[in-house]
Design goal:
signal; 7-stranded antiparallel sheet; DUF3558; disordered N terminus; alpha+beta; Protein Transport Mog1p, Chain A; DUF3558 domain-containing protein
């Protein structure tokens, strides 16, 4: 039962970058080098104080302490799943609601997230205040916010984001407002990363 939930979350985390790749498979598109607005989208925020997240890319479960995972998610267990870009960690509560976190190195950072939002007829793209000083946006290719799902992308460098996504059951206390939950988890992750830098 937890495998489908983990796969659903992992798929959502990866779809945020699905159109970022260049026509040559395996070659990521470069991130823009200026803070100029994208030609057809909103202005792209820059990361003023980049974080070194190399150690978390292959071990995203370490981006939250056990105490943080318990406090924000009510986590009783976690699992690390491989993906084509980097591993994804999913924490589950006792009802199998899940929250996943993964880093997306070499995928263009927030520029990709913004680019993918232009002309999208499904999903959502919604600005949000910085997460502990780092630019962020709520964005996903499918809009399931009314069903316990939400995803946030946080820029940790101008070329990399981490995403936090949720798949919550109706008995989760955060079911009706999953975006608040993923934002709190993202804030906790930034705190951990800063402390570990």
């Amino acid at each position: 039962m937890t495998k489908p939930i983990a796969r659903t979350i992992a798929t959502g985390l990866l779809l945020i970058t699905a159109t970022a790749c260049s026509p040559t498979p395996g070659t990521p598109s470069p991130a823009p080098s200026s803070s100029a607005p994208l030609s057809t989208g909103p202005p792209l925020p820059q990361v003023a104080s980049p974080l070194n997240v190399t150690r978390y890319e292959q071990d995203p479960c370490s981006a939250l302490s056990p105490a943080q995972a318990t406090e924000f998610i009510g986590a009783t267990r976690s699992s690390k799943d491989p993906s084509s870009i980097a591993p994804i960690c999913t924490w589950f509560d006792r009802h199998n609601s899940g929250v996943s976190l993964g880093f997306l190195p070499g995928q263009g950072g927030l520029a990709t997230t913004y680019k993918n939002s232009v002309g999208s007829t499904t999903g959502y793209f919604q600005g949000t205040p910085d997460v502990s000083g780092y630019p962020a946006v709520f964005s996903a290719v499918h809009d399931d916010r009314d069903d316990g799902g939400c995803q946030i992308a946080v820029g940790v460098t101008n070329g990399e984001v981490f995403t936090v996504g949720s798949v919550l059951n109706k008995n989760s206390p955060s079911y009706s407002d999953p975006c608040s939950l993923v934002r709190k988890v993202a804030e906790a992750a930034v705190t951990t990363i800063k402390a570990g830098a």
